[in-house]
Amino acid sequence: MSVFPATAAAKAAGRSRTSASGTRPGSRNQRSAYWFIAPLGLGFAVFYFWPLLQTLYFSFTEFGAFGGHTFIGTDNYLRVVKDVTVWQALGNTLIYCVIGLMALPIAIVVASLLNRRGLRGVSVYRALYFIPFVTLPVAVGLVWNWLYNGDFGLVNEILSWFGVDRHYWVSDPSTAVYAIGTVMVWSTTGYYLVIFMAGVKGIPQDYYEAAELDGAGPLRRFFTITLPLLSPTIFFASVICMINSLQTFDLIYIMMAEKNPAIGDTQSVVGLFYKWAFVENAQGAAAALAFLLMLVIAALTYLQFRIQKRWVHYA
Amino acid sequence: MRRRTLLGGAVAAPLLAACSGGGGGTDSGGRTTLSYGMWDPAQVPGMERIIAAFEKRNPEISVRIQLTPWASYWTTLKTSMRGGTAPDVFWMNAVNFQLYAANGVLEPLSGHIKADATPVDRHPKALVKLYSYRGTQYGLPKDFDTIGLWYNKQLFDKAGITYPDASWTWDDVRDAAAELTDPHRRVHGFAAEMDRQIKIYPAICGADGYVLENGRSGFGDERSIEGMRFLTDMVDRGWSPPQSAMVESVGRVRYWSEKVAMNYDLSAMAGQMYAVPALKDHGGIAVLPQGKRRATIIHGLANVVSAKSDKKAAAWKFVHFMAGREAAEIQAKAGATISSYEGTQDAWIKSMPEFDLKHFIEMQEYAVPYPSSKNTAVWENLQYPLLGAAFSGKGGIESAARTLGEQMDRALKEERDS
């Protein structure tokens, strides 16, 4: 009796193989595939590719305050390269990127802890970790600003139990960038947790059982089974995470008041872009800045794809 | 065929009704609806009363307030200007005026003013001039603001110090600040906040310095630096919270919660101060103490008409009404701000009898107009990032101010060249 389902499965597999071989290049099937991806392609062309070309064009022009523009060549790029605040913003953005990546190890550890067999209430934990991610960054920023408040914030209150002096976390240039980075990590960990939980679930339980029989402890199992088999997921998550943290803006915009003395030390490239484009009427230079940021992101992503060959194992 | 005529009739009916209702640029209801852009929620009740009076006289026009928070007002306005959805009439300030006028997005009002004999000369001359560009008037003032010294009488009584008056100099402020500061109760004598309009500019002018004169920055000037040092020195000595603290709870809030004994603040804040029971009871007002000379900063808002509006005739009627005595009196009674129409300020002073609001009017004599150029926002945006450290008790106001002066001069040069 037990043989019957197996043969049925084999038959089904055989059938699917024959139908798959029917998809030859240039066949009707393939043409219809293009129709299926057309809506996405159209959206991409209208909302990404066309604005990209426009940005590139505008980066060589100077804008009037209320419309109209003149071509000025590479002046905007010269301004961007010569401006010290650009380099400072780029440095800050790279710090955000490094801090932002901290969400990954936290998410991996929590995901593998939640993967324990027989653990109850996994979905509750998953929801709890995910809630910050679906909360509006504006709300997150406001609430954390209250928590960080130097005069009556909860963070100082708790730290004072351990004898730490009160501190103005988001307005002291030496701590502000880390204070914001912490909130970034806090609010994105849940997203990566969900990705990693799916990845961890995909690792066959047999490996763990075999390793356990061979006497491998939980740490050993984590480093020799979970991490290598999770590496494709980690790679995907790190690319996404890096791009997101390089484009960070909203949280900083909310958490940093205009008169904050730490503003120069926390401003991201996109924050500077906003200031130029929408406050100072320098849309052309802002376009150049945006284009350079795109190049930086492209370069770093390319680098990640090059390095992945050394550490990502596709099982 | 029949269907078409039916449809045609349906479309024509409201159009006809609109035509009989009154004048061009009307909406389907037969009334012209103007949108009125403003940012201060505290002034909404007063503005609503003015609008009600205006609508009573002009039943064919209705005005709808479009409130945008200060933080995003100018960004939103500029974007909506480009997109063609800007309000018909909106608030303008000195910082942005020249940029808007120079780019032709404001409706010139000189012709209308002449035709309708708008009482422009009843408003402060300096303020009217602030809203003319190359000889053409683009805006009519609605109110004005000066900076005064707000103090907490109870904290003064506790420290046994006499209240500030017109004879006070910066030395008196320093002495009082030292006495009033109580680290144990986390009370500071003064709030030397990094704020251009209410702290930095008045201090610079009080030290006989200047912010902008003949297209040159005054930040590098020794007198200006001395003015700013008056503020940063308070921070260094611990008589004022550092800027890093005041960015998390601003000076005004600290004054409200009685954690700061003396604060420079706008006359427009009177209504909000009045709403705090403790301050209504023992909040005091004095003219700004004298540095090298007497000075305060005067600034006022104006109503302007968008050049892209398709209801300009109605918009002008509204702006004309707002510049008249009746509107000014309503505004003054509402108490949110000093109306700029001559002789109507008494209503404002009487609206809060517990406060000595007359000092704000007195200061007009030596008030310095708010400095501005075409791209004011560009050089003003240089200030806070460069001065932040000095206002946080890290010192170095001299070199920070000089750097700011150089960078501002560069921005002003770019402005001239463009």
Automatic annotation (TrEMBL), chain A:
This protein's GO CC annotations: plasma membrane
Ranges for region Disordered: 1-28
UniProt topology in membrane: Multi-pass membrane protein
Record key words, sorted: Cell membrane, Membrane, Transmembrane, Transmembrane helix, Transport
Main location: membrane
Entries under CDD domains matching the protein: TM_PBP2
SUPFAM superfamilies xrefs: MetI-like
Subcellular location(s) per record: Cell membrane
Cross-referenced InterPro entries: ABC_transporter_permease, MetI-like, MetI-like_sf
Domain of life: Bacteria
Residues annotated as transmembrane: 33-53, 93-115, 127-147, 176-200, 221-246, 282-303
GO biological processes: transmembrane transport
Start and end residues of each ABC transmembrane type-1 domain: 89-304
Family: Belongs to the binding-protein-dependent transport system permease family.
Name recorded for this polypeptide: Sugar ABC transporter permease
Highest classification ranks of the organism: Bacteria, Bacillati, Actinomycetota, Actinomycetes, Kitasatosporales
